[in-house]
């Protein structure tokens, strides 16, 4: 059964159970989907309203386009949920391979490495996709219905959380690949993504705070 067909209750129950999946990776992708959904809501309650008519033609066209991109990102995040589950289950199957002789040991070792690579790359790709989505949220905060700016703020916080969570899942798999030449490159990429995300989140949240709870002069 695909995650997108789960009820909220079913997902939460399975997440809290002893089932091997869903886990942190699929949850990170779900949080990314929730961020995009919330941002799309800002557009839905802006497009066609009075505030929308006050925008320039270019801004109107861009908002419509960005909402479509937000909807596509939701689907992409849902696909990451499935991919993470598949990667994890494949990795667990690798550890169950026989190791009764030298040949089996070599095959098992290679399969574990192969599937660890996959389990590491999926959350990294998710984090990279999430970074791109900040621009979408920024536009919603700047040009969307001002009564929904707090929702844009929540979308921002959720996006950063999805990125942080994804990087955790990158690192837990990268730990088993420390002997590989690419390890340092991936580690540096993770640091860069986290730093960029933190700065973007803080900048957007400053904008949100100034609107929803301005400081007294």
Automatic annotation (TrEMBL):
Q: Which Gene3D superfamilies match?
A: Formiminotetrahydrofolate cyclodeaminase monomer, up-and-down helical bundle (1.20.120.680)
Protein name as it appears in the record: Cyclodeaminase/cyclohydrolase family protein
Instruction: Write one Gene Ontology MF term.
Output: catalytic activity
Q: Name one Pfam family in it.
A: FTCD_C
Write down the species: Clostridium tertium
Taking the record's annotation, the residue ranges forming a coiled coil are 49-83
Would I find Transport among this entry's keywords?
A: no
Coiled coil recorded as keyword: yes
Q: What keywords appear on the UniProt entry? A: Coiled coil
- Stretches assigned to the Cyclodeaminase/cyclohydrolase domain: 7-191
Q: What is the lineage of its organism?
A: Bacteria, Bacillati, Bacillota, Clostridia, Eubacteriales
